[in-house]
Recover the amino acids of this structure.
């Protein structure tokens, strides 16, 4: 995958920022009721470098590794208990919904190295394009780009890019069908 970058290990600067974020997260983010404190949580994420539209929503149970690696456009949402392991950028475009317990995984280890756990940290960004929906308990791997209006079925494991308007499911995720929008709802 050509988007993958070998960064060896987590830098000292990142570790220090993470200590502050973990403190703020534990004390001021996690304990907030989800609906009433939406804007407050966005403010905290922005203070740590996230780029988030004011109409976006991040539930209080979401785990974000690095707010400075998070971009969320208008009306995008990280749902309950999502894990956003964003050692590299996670970008949600307009109208994207990521449902319960999904794991967005931007990092791993270069398994071709003998000491991969120690020195082989590899990272790659995840992009979810506009109006795509990621169903519950999905796994989205590093470097994956999900096309606009695509649907990732519940529990799917996605290791490769998903074409726009495709509905995918399974592990590894395969195309189930093309998404069709019926405006009348009939
Ligand atoms: C992917 C999804 C949107 C498809 O819904 P649908 O259009 O009604 O599709 P169908 O139920 O008609 O299923 C079509 C086929 O795909 C399969 N399929 C559906 N969802 C699947 C999934 N998540 N993984 C693997 N296969 C799936 C069905 O078994 C069926 O297979 P078949 O043609 O061999 O019988 C839906 O199944 C899904 O996963 N929704 C996510 C729900 C969710 O996460 N909710 C929580 C937040 S609100």
């Amino acid at each position: 995958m050509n988007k993958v970058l070998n960064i060896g290990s987590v830098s000292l600067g990142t570790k220090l920022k993470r200590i502050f974020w973990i403190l703020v997260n534990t004390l001021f983010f996690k304990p907030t009721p989800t609906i009433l404190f939406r804007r407050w949580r966005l403010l905290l994420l922005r203070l740590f470098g996230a780029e988030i539209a004011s109409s976006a929503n991040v539930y209080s149970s979401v785990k974000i590794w690095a707010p400075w690696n998070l971009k969320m456009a208008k009306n995008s949402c990280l749902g309950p208990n999502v894990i956003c392991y964003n050692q590299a950028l996670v970008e949600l475009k307009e109208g994207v919904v990521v449902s319960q317990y999904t794991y967005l995984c931007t990092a791993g280890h270069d398994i071709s190295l003998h000491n991969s756990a120690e020195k082989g940290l590899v990272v790659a960004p995840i992009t979810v394009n506009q109006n795509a929906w990621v169903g519950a308990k999905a796994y989205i791997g590093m470097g994956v780009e999900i096309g606009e209006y695509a649907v990732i079925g519940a529990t799917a494991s996605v290791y490769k890019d998903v074409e726009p308007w495709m509905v995918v499911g399974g592990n590894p995720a395969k195309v189930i069908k093309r998404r069709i929008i019926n405006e009348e709802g009939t």
Observations:
- The CA atoms of residues 28 and 125 lie 27 Å apart.
- The radius of gyration is 17 Å.
- The mean pLDDT is 94.
